[in-house]
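ARCHIVE RECORD
Type: protein–small molecule complex
Small molecule: magnesium ion
Source of inputs: curated submission
Record status: active
Notes field left blank by submitter.
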Amino acid sequence: MKVAPQNESSVKGLPFSVDDIGLFAVDLDGVVYRGDIVLPGAPSFILRVREMGRPLVFVTNSTLRPRGYYVSKLHAMGIPVEPNEIITAAHATGRYLKGVLEGASPTIFMLGEQGLKEELANLKPRYLSPDDEEVAQAVVVGLDRGVNYPKLCKAVRDVMEGALFIGVNGDPIWPVENGFMPGVGVFLSAIETATGVSPFIVGKPNTYMLEMAIRECGCAPSQVLMIGDKIDSDIMMGHKVGAKTALVLSGVTSMNDLDVCPTEMHPHLVARDLAHLEAILFHSK
Ligand SMILES: [Mg+2]
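STRUCTURE (tokenized, with ligand):
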């Protein structure tokens, strides 16, 4: 493990050069902001990457909001961004389904909310309701705060009848202002328990979103720097594709968590926040 020294003047032996990075992939919550608070150094770090002229994507497991929401939120924080630089798990799910579903207007049974629906709009799907007899081509599961027994029944029945079973992400919980709420993984587990079928999960730590970004950028996976605050999500996704990884401690992971985590999951770099990461990557040149 390469742990970033706390004293920036002593930074030596960076495991790679920032000049070799062809794509910066950056998680949002816990890295760029926490709730509505921008985290230290985030606008400056992003500006620095822009000055380098290298591609940048923000990669988030979000299922609730469309990409436009993040464009506005980042703009308000002093971080200009284009919609195509944001990959949410909801957006990636739309792209994934476009590749696997046949027909002009595929049938979908969805657990999810408006943000997910907006990201699936390009498919021109026909949504089934819980009391429809027809079996959907795909059961798509995102965060649904109105989940109920009839919805679960329909999802289970259709997966048993052969519908594709897709999870937008597999997060067991999601952070809210004052703690945590049950996440998409809870619904997936319920359906998997009933059917014995495992879902295909689009979001982190699976690699679909990052592979999508790499394909569009055209760089090699080893030229990607994945920056995130969660070892078992951001960092694991980065490792799986063969990217460089940087963990920031401004989110959910502490140095103690890192100490007890298996060595093979460790990131290439650790920084307190993006301000510290900028110092490590750029000032050591
Ligand atoms: Mg995060």
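CURATOR ANNOTATION: The pocket of magnesium ion is lined by residues 27, 29-31, 228-230, 251 (CB under 6 Å).
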